[in-house]
Amino acid sequence: MFGTGELGVNSAIANHTTAISTGLVLAVVGGHLLGVISAHDRAVALFPRGRALAGQLPLLVVMVTYTLGGLGLLFAT
After folding, report:
1. Which has the closest alpha carbon to 62: 28, 32, 37?
2. Domain-embedded: residue 37
3. For the chain, give me the number of helices (H) and strands (E)?
4. At what angle do helices 49-74 and 17-46 cross, to 10 degrees?
5. How far is CA 39 from CA 44, 69, 72, in A?
6. How far apart, in whole angstroms, are the C-alpha atoms of residue 67 and residue 74?
7. Closest CA to 33 of 5, 67, 9
8. By the 8 A CB rule, do 54 and 62 touch?
9. Tens-of-pLDDT digits for all 77 residues of the chain?
10. In three state form, how does the secondary structure of the chain look?
11. Which residues fall within 8 angstroms of residue 44, CB to CB, at 6 or more apart?
12. pLDDT value at residue 77
């Protein structure tokens, strides 16, 4: 219908594995970093300073674990 029935699959992106893995690492780490920063800003706005800090420590541990787990899954063979 659109003249694309005879076209093959373009697999040129598969030749750039370093660029793909770098992009995925940046996405995982950047997303988790943005999550921690936004949670910190929200906690500081809602709670007193001491209580906000104490509530963020478990979140920090969980996010570091998620990041390491995500990178482990990304590079598992």
Report:
1. 32
2. yes
3. 2, 0
4. 160
5. 9, 20, 24
6. 10
7. 67
8. no
9. 788 888 888 888 888 888 888 998 899 889 988 988 898 888 888 888 878 888 888 888 988 898 899 889 888 86
10. CCCCCCCCCCCHHHHCHHHHHHHHHHHHHHHHHHHHHHHHHHHHHHCCHHHHHHHHHHHHHHHHHHHHHHHHHHCCC
11. 52
12. 65
Residue 42 lies in a domain: yes
Task: At 49, give phi and psi (nearest 5°).
Answer: -55, -50
Q: What is the pTM assigned to this prediction?
A: 0.67
| Number of structural domains the chain divides into | 1
| DSSP tag of 15 | G
How many residues comprise the chain? 77
Structural domain span for residue 42: 28-74
What is the DSSP-derived secondary structure letter of residue 75? S
**Within-domain flag for 52:** yes
What three-state secondary structure class fits 9? coil
Residue 6 placed within a domain: no
